[in-house]
Specification:
It contains seven helices and five strands; from the N terminus they run H-H-E-H-H-E-E-E-E-H-H-H. The chain is of the alpha+beta class and 202 residues long. The chain has a domain of 126 residues: Thiol Ester Dehydrase, Chain A, CATH 3.10.129.10. It has a five-stranded antiparallel sheet, with helices on both faces. A hairpin with a 3-residue loop joins strand 3 and strand 4. Helix 2 runs parallel beside helix 3. The longest helix is centred in the last third of the chain and has 21 residues. It is globular, with a radius of gyration of 19 Å. The termini are far apart. Belongs to the THEM6 family. InterPro entries: HotDog_dom_sf (IPR029069), THEM6_lcsJ_thioesterase (IPR051490). It holds the Pfam family 4HBT_2.
C-alpha cells in the first residue's frame, strides 16, 4: 500500500508542477483572510523566500521564478482590492499581454524578500502594473517588472467603476511606462507588417 501511495505521489509530481498549485492555494487563503484594500492605487506587498526548488545552477533564484512569483503577487493584489471578483462578475478575463523585467541583483538561497505591487495606470484595454522584488536583508530592489494586464470581454474602467461605484481618474503615466507602451506598440506593428496583417486590413 505504501509503495502505491509513493508511486502515485511520484507520478503526480512528475506530471504536474505541484509546488505551483500549492503556492497558489497558499496565496489564495492568505489574501482571503487579510483585510480588504479599498484604494485601488495603493501599493501592496507579499512575502517570499528563495527555496531549493527556486534555484538555478548558480545557486540563485532562477530568472523564470521571478515571473511566477509576480503572477502570484498580482493574484493576491487583485483579490484584496476586489478587481478579481469584479472581473468575474462582469464576465471579464485578465491575461498578461506583455511584461518586462530588469534584474539588478540576484536573490540567494534562503534570502527573504517582498514583492511590492501597484497599479500605475490603465487605458481602454489594459491595466499597467509595477512590481518590485525588495530584499529584506537591506531593502535593495533586486528586480523590477512592468506588466500589461489585458482585460478581455470588458474594460478596465468598467471593472473599476463596478468596484468603486464611481469613475476613477487614471493617474498620469510615468515616463518609463510611456516609453514601454510605445515599444509594445512598435513591436506589435512590426509583427503585423511582417505577417501581412496590415495589408489584409487595408
Amino acid at each position: 500500500m505504501l509503495l502505491l501511495v509513493l508511486g502515485a505521489l511520484l507520478l503526480l509530481f512528475c506530471s504536474l508542477d505541484v509546488w505551483y498549485f500549492l503556492r497558489g492555494v497558499q496565496v489564495f487563503f492568505q489574501a482571503w483572510f487579510q483585510p480588504r484594500i479599498w484604494d485601488l492605487l495603493v501599493e501592496q506587498t507579499i512575502d517570499g523566500m528563495v527555496l531549493p526548488h527556486d534555484l538555478d545552477y548558480m545557486g540563485h533564484m532562477n530568472n523564470s521564478r521571478y515571473l511566477r512569483e509576480c503572477d502570484f503577487a498580482r493574484f493576491h493584489h487583485y483579490m484584496r482590492n476586489g478587481l478579481l471578483m469584479a472581473s468575474r462578475k462582469l464576465g471579464a478575463r485578465m491575461v498578461v499581454g506583455a511584461s518586462t523585467i530588469r534584474y539588478r541583483r540576484s536573490l540567494a538561497f534562503c534570502e527573504a524578500f517582498e514583492i511590492r505591487t501597484k497599479i500605475v495606470g490603465w487605458d481602454e484595454k489594459a491595466f499597467y502594473l509595477e512590481q518590485r522584488f525588495v530584499s529584506k536583508k537591506d531593502g535593495f530592489v533586486s528586480a523590477i517588472m512592468l506588466c500589461r494586464q489585458n482585460v478581455v470581454h470588458c474594460s478596465p474602467e468598467s471593472i473599476i467603476e463596478f468596484v468603486c461605484k464611481r469613475k476613477i481618474e487614471c493617474p498620469e503615466f510615468p515616463e518609463d511606462l510611456k516609453h514601454w507602451i510605445s515599444f509594445i506598440s512598435a513591436s506589435s506593428q512590426a509583427l503585423r507588417a511582417e505577417s501581412g496583417l496590415e495589408e489584409k486590413n487595408k
